Amino acid sequence: MSMKYVRETYGVPARRGGRVSYSGVTTGSPPLLGTICSATSSGHIRVRFDGERRTLKLHPTWAIEYLQDTETDEQRKGEADEMSRNIERAA
User: Fold this and answer.
1) What is the pLDDT of residues 14-39, one digit of tens each?
2) Most C-beta atoms within 10 A of its C-beta, which of 35, 40, 41, 69?
3) Domain extents for the chain?
4) Cβ–Cβ < 8 Å for 41, 25
5) Rounded distance between C-alpha atoms, residue 16 and residue 21, angstroms
6) Which pTM value belongs to this model?
7) What is the CATH number of domain 3-90?
């Protein structure tokens, strides 16, 4: 399965590199923060939690909050375009 499949099937904004907060560990414990690494063949997502080496397979809708980026895609594209123009000027 792909990230596109996960997004369309479960209606979530999952994407590689996206940040999540997972609260399904134990009752009363603080949520874990992590980064989405990939989608599995079963339609789950693989998340690497901060400070961990391994990833865990999680259901895309169970106890997960998808966190918003501080930058928008438009801002990133604008910065990339500006860098390209600066490189062209320097050449």
Assistant:
1) 999 999 999 987 777 889 999 999 99
2) 35
3) 3-90
4) no
5) 15
6) 0.71
7) 2.30.30
